[in-house]
Amino acid sequence: MAYDIIGDIHGCLHELKKLIAQLGYHEESGLYVHDQGRKLVFVGDLTDRGPASVKTIELVYRLVKHQLALYAPGNHCNKLYRYMLGRPVQIKHGLETTVAELEALDQQQKQKVYHDFMTLYDEAPLYLQLDNGKLVVAHAGIREKDIGQINKRIKSFVLYGDTTGDFDEQGRPIRLDWARHYKGDTWVVYGHTPVKRPRWKNHTVNIDTGCVFGGMLTALRYPEMETVSVPSEQPYIEDKFRDFED
Predict the structure, then answer these.
(1) Secondary structure class of 221 (helix, strand, coil)
(2) Which NCBIfam families does the entry mention (predicted)?
(3) How far is CA 218 from CA 13, 29, 168, in A?
(4) Of 175, 212, 207, 172, whose CA–CA distance to 48 is shortest?
């Protein structure tokens, strides 16, 4: 099976549709199919901050439901899920934009979006193991020794990254560079930390190129190991991108 793995969308629906078209998919009855049977894979963080989180949910739900795509959740997905369950979460860091979209819907529409997203999340694995174990798609990455396992520690790592528990001067969690120390043979494709261009390190690729912050929306074509990007239509915010010392 050949895959097209798409980085963090964050409600940037227009860029998503442009990228899907550029990857060679065509639309049929609101779905996207590829003549060569390729499958879309979403690395999480479908919503928050961007202009069209609800419609992004609806599209990804339809694609996964019709077995045209795969999905692994991100930290923003996890937070939205907890919000929909009625658990106490802070409505900030982008969630406020998705909540505003939900509140603008009528009750029937809102119930359907809740159903679709919660079903999507409930049925998703924490991370995807593909191509007979040669490929893993995990939102914030995963250590080689943890592949194939799930526990509370691994869940935190996969959703939120290798965090120290401390915060930088802007209030963002300090994340360690786990990919620098990765020694596995399995390819790990992930997002979560915005970078200006896809970052290749050992057998890992970060494809979160910060679309919602004015960068690009990027896909990795597998097994070709080629990236395809479309430019963002959002305002550029320089300090949202991380520079790694490679």
Answers:
(1) strand
(2) PRK13625.1
(3) 13, 25, 27
(4) 212
